[in-house]
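Can't paste images in this forum, so I'm doing it all in text. The chain is below; anyone willing to post the predicted structure tokens underneath?
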Amino acid sequence: MVIPALRPPVLRPRPTAPPLPRGGTRHVGPNWYAGVMGTAVVGTAGAGLPGSPAALRDACTAVWVLAAAALVAVLAARAAHWTRHRDEALRHLADPAVAPFHGCQPMALLAVGAGALSLGPRVAGERAAVAAGWTLWTAGTVSGLVVAVAVPYLMVTRHRIAADGASPVWLLPLVAPMVSAALGPALVPHLGGAQAREALLLGCVALFGLSLLATLMTLPLVWGRLLRYGPLPVALTPLLFLVLGPLGQSTTAVGAFADAGPVAVGAPYAAALRGFAVLYGVPVMGFALLWLALSAALVVRAARRGMRFSLTWWAFTFPVGTCVTGASGLARHTGLHAAAWLAAGLYVLLAAGWAAAAGGTLRGLVTGALPAPAAGSTVTA
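Text version of the structure:
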């Protein structure tokens, strides 16, 4: 019996998929809405500064128009992303580092909607501006509530998060209802019936409570992660500024409640809302300044360790902008010049952060480094 010789198997290299192209819409993740948010708040926060000059208001109107155009562009890119690259879109939902960024979409709608009410009449007229404000606020509020439930649900049931995985991005889906709460009162005067005005204002108060309590459960996790495991990775350090979002936005919201109170609720409640705006806003703004100082120190530390530009730099914009609007509200309700100067100083910081983030993003788009994979939002350019 002849036994055939056994030949060793021929090992062939396994074919590998070609690298994904950086162009197109495949890598336009939900974090791209942060640029819309950051640009819109530069316009609305500047227009709301105490004693802002006419020239600044004209510039803020131009910035808001830019934000509105950017919103249209990102909405179109994200629609194409879901249509052509559904696998990547679903991967984003399954990625615990990316899924929370879906909270940016409703906030982008709301931020541009706020500018429609305060700056839009100069561009499109009062009627069109109010209609745009209602549309964007409604769409942003509904989608924000969906995200506020859906993302935590995915975190509980699908995501597997390490012990050191707590991140400030967890706040993004939770802050969206707070943005609705802060911007909804501006629509109260545009309602005719007393019942409708009261329902809208109290609905905004309910959104305030929803977001505030969820934030109070999440913030200790972020603080505990920093104390137990040290600073965030260098590229993610700017995300610490996201904590300012719920602090400044909630201060803005209570000020807006006080503004709308006289036309929406009875005398006892209107007076209570005015008092609450100060008694809540002052201590929360104090904590915001503490966190701002801590975050800035950690960013300086990261810069010394080679931090390069990434889309996380947009965290320097919208959260700081909410502190500007919060301080402006305190100046309006207390009459304190110190609060007005604080708002102006924070606005300078906001403008500097926007210039850095927008410049880096534009450079990345021109060179082709952006868009790029959104995993962890750490892509540099």
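The chain has twelve helices and no strands. Confidence is low (pLDDT under 50) at residues 1-22, 377-381.
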